Amino acid sequence: MLIDFHTHTTASDGALDPCELVARALDSNIELLAITDHDTMAGHKAAEAYHRQSAGGMQLIPGIEFSCRWSGVTIHILGLGIDSDHPVMRDALVTMAAARTERGEKIAKRLVARGFDGALQGALKEAGESQLGRPHFAAWMVEQGHVQDQNQAFDQYLGQGKPGDVKAFWPELAEVVSWIVSAGGSAVIAHPLKYRFTGMKLRRLIEAFVAAGGCGIEVLSGRQTRDQTAHLSRLAKDYDLEVSLGSDFHRDAPYSAELGVESRPFEGLRCVWERWLP
Ligand code: MN
Ligand code: MN
Ligand code: MN
Questions:
Q1: From CA 16, how far away is CA 22, in angstroms rounded?
Q2: What is the pLDDT averaged over residues 176-194?
Q3: Could you give the C-alpha distances from 205 to 64, 86, 99, 230, 269, in angstroms and in order?
Q4: 267 CA to middle of ligand 1, Å?
Q5: 96 confidence band (pLDDT: 50, 70, 90)
Q6: Spatial separation of the C-alpha atoms in residues 1 and 195, rounded to whole Å
Q7: How far is the CA of 8 from the centre of ligand 1 (A)?
Q8: Does residue 77 lie in a domain region?
Q9: How confident is the model at residue 168 (pLDDT cuts 50, 70, 90)?
Q10: Helix and strand numbers, DSSP H then E, in the chain
Q11: Could you tell me if residue 123 is inside a domain?
C-alpha cells in the first residue's frame, strides 16, 4: 500500500496547489494522504472539497507540520488526524500565524541591516497567500540577484546559525504536542535525523516528546539510506512509538523524493496509519 503522511502545497512552501497535489496522489494510487503544510491547515481545507468530489479510494487525513522549540533547536512535529475546527487548534493556528509574521519581520530587519533593503515587502510578495517562511526570503534574494540560487541564500543568510535563523517565536515542544493531542490527533516527530543530534540527544528529544503525549516517529522521510531507516525503526521499537512514513514532498527536484511511500516493509511494527485502515 502506498501512503504519504508528509507533503506540502502552495499553502506553505510547496510548488503544487492543494488540488494538484491531491490529483497527483490519486494518479500515483496513494491510499492514505496527509497534507502537512508548515503551521497552517489552509492547504488541507482547500484540498478537502476537491478530494470529496473526485473519484477514487484515497483517504485524505487532516495534517499539519508545526515548528517548535526544544533545547534551543527548532523541531518539526507533525499532527495527523486532528480536528482543524477544534477550539484549541483554531487558537493554535492564530498563534502560529502571528509567530510567523513576527519572525518574518525580525528576519527582514536582520537582512536590511546587511544591506538588503525591502526584504519584508519582497518576501511577502513571494509568499502571496502562503504562510511566510524563509524560502520566500530566499526566492526574493534570488529574484533580486543578491544570490545565485536558494541554496546560496540559505548557506549565507538564512540557514542554521545564519542571521535569518530566527527561532525565538516558536512555542515549546510540549505545548505543540498538547495542541495536537487536545484536537484529537497523533503527534509525530518529523525527520528525526535532520536535526543532526548525537544518539544521546535524539533519545532525550524522544523522551521529552513522549512525556508531552507524543506517540509517533517518522521512520522514513524523503530520501534516506537503509541504515538510517533501520536506526529509526529501532528507536520506534525501543520507545514503543508508532511508525509514520512520508516523502516530505515540496516539488519535483532531482534531490527530493517522489510522492508516496510503500508501507509493506513496516507492517510488523506499530503503525500510525492503523486507525485509518478500513
Ligand atoms: Mn518546507
Ligand atoms: Mn520539516
Ligand atoms: Mn515538511
A1: 9
A2: 98
A3: 20, 27, 23, 19, 21
A4: 28
A5: very high
A6: 29
A7: 7
A8: yes
A9: low
A10: 9, 8
A11: yes
